Task: structure prediction
Amino acid sequence: MNIIERLGAIVTLVLVSTLILVTPTTAQGGPIAHITFPIMGQTMRGDISIQGTATSSQFARYTVAYAPEPDQTNWTVINVSTIQQPNGMLAVWNTQPLPDGKYALRLQVTNNDGTAVQSLIRDLSLANATATATASANSSAVVTDTASTSNSFTNALGFDPVAIVNSLDLSAIPGAFVKGVRYTLYAFAALGVYVLVKWIIGSLLHRLFHKPEDYGR
Result:
């Protein structure tokens, strides 16, 4: 190999090395704004942890905001940060004060020169009122079951032990202790019913099947 060929090989090696080392750095330096959670069309309630990526080689800040659908004219800021987020939590969105409906989320990454890129997630549904209504319905079902138990006790004993427990003035005692006392009294009432019914059935069976012993009279 002559000197010209050697020089050509060296130049080629330098060019290839430059492309490998420099090109990826340049590509990764651009701003990235990407929301990974929540996703479009999702139904949510309560506190929402917004996940994603907000980075740039000239990073200044990122901003997370929401707006009602479909107009998206009034954006409300959830969080502003001057710290880049390569992959993680961008903000926590408290949706409980908001009326149920459709919303959009926006992530903006702003550079030092004022330029910005953004990511938009649309068609997000809030359903906080639905969850509250379900919890209230479950609470009503518990009250109905308690009333049914009270009626069963009344039919068996001739009085209502549940009503007696509920009539006690326990307002000065902490709520958790009161609940424990009530459940204990309910258990004792149920045990009393069981013992009474067992004694009545035993007495009837004894009278029906027990014959007096003959001592030879």
Observations:
- The CA atoms of residues 152 and 158 lie 10 Å apart.
- The mean pLDDT is 77.
- The two ends are 140 Å apart (CA to CA).
